[in-house]
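In full, the data.
>
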Amino acid sequence: MGRKWNNIKEKKAAKDANTSRVYSKFALEIYVAAKQGEPDPEANQALKFVLERAKTYNVPRNIIDRAIDKAKGGGDENYDELRYEGFGPNGSMIIVDALTNNVNRTASNVRAAFGKNGGNMGVSGSVAYMFDATAVIGVEGKTADDVLELLMEADIDVRDVLEEDDSVIVYAEPDQFYAVQEAFKGIGVTDFTVAELTMLAQNDVELPEEAQAQFEKLIDALEDLEDVQRVYHNVDLGE
C-alpha cells in the first residue's frame, strides 16, 4: 500500500483552494445520487456514501442542500456514469470516472486530454484488471493496534490497517465500507480523514523525472474536465 491518503487529499485541497471545482463536482454527484433514489441518505446508500465523502472534503452544507433540493424538485437533467481507461507516459495506467449529460462531448474531451499530454485511450478492460476496488477509511486519535482490536471485536475482515502520518487508514473490501464506519461510530468516532471507495493499483510504478512531469500534466488535464469526477492511476508521485 504505497499511497499516503491524507497527503494526496492535502495536495488536491491546495490545488482546489481558489476554485469551486471540487464543490461543483460533489454537487453534481449528490444531485445524481439523490435523483436516482430517495433524497434521504438513510434510504439511499449511494447518496449516503457521497455525503460521507463530501464531509471529509468540507463541502459546505448549503451546496449539499441545494443539490438535494434540486433532485427533490424533479430536475430534468439526466446523467450517465462512464468509465474510461487509458495509458500515460511509459505505459502508466489511468482510470477516469465521469458523470455526463453528453456522452459524445465527454468522450471527445477525455480522448483529447490523453492525446495532448502524452497518453492514449485504451479499450474497456485494458487497465482496470490491474486495479482493485477498495474501501479506504481513515481516522485520527487511534493507533493501528486500537483499530485492529476494534475490527476484530466487530468481526470485520479488512485487507490492511496502516498508520500514515497522524491517521490510521483501513483498507477493506468495498462491501465492508459501512461496516467499518459503523464500528468506529460505535465507539464515538464520527469524523473521518478519508472515506472513499476507490480503485487502488495492485502495483505502483515510478517514472523518470521528465515522464513524471508529463504524467502530472496529463492527470491535471483530466481532472480539470467538467464531466470528470475521479481519476485513478498507478504512479507513485511521491506524495
